[in-house]
Prior knowledge:
Blueprint (H helix, E strand, L loop, with lengths): L4 E5 L5 H11 L1 H7 L5 H4 L2 H10 L1 E7 L2 E10 L4 E9 L8 H17 L3 E7 L3 H9 L3 E7 L5 E8 L8
Amino acid sequence: xxxxxxxxxxxEQDAEQIFRLQxxxxxxxAALYGNYRIDPLVESLDSIRHELxxxxxxxxxxxxxxxxxxxxxxxxxxxAFISKLCVHPRLQGHGIGARLLRAAEAALAAERGATRFRLxxxxxxxxxxxxxxxxxxxxxxxxxxxxxxxxxxxEKPEGSYAATA
Length: 165
């Protein structure tokens, strides 16, 4: 009998698993850009602990193992910034990323008053862009990451959930 993946709010004790998962998951992004100094790879465990305490953080669990995570925080004017969505490579392509996004969006809207959602991804990250478009995000601009990677900025209004993930 197999276990199913569950989505829940992250707890303080999840910090180390999120830290390790993030490092594993963003290796492919770093390789795509030839840059192993991208933010998710250089973020400290203390920074993750701080975000767990202050921000909206969700995890996907398979039993006791954290196999996915996402973070969000409300910024100026009711916009919520969603970041560092990651799913363990062995479980990608099964809708876990979309489920994490929906959980974060719902909590940010209901608990923190978000009226729109914004996120970014590297310009070469086609898999990420497909997922974000599929769940209703649209390109609204570009920027340059602090690590030098050209980024695509995507946004959608609160309440606009795509029918399929």
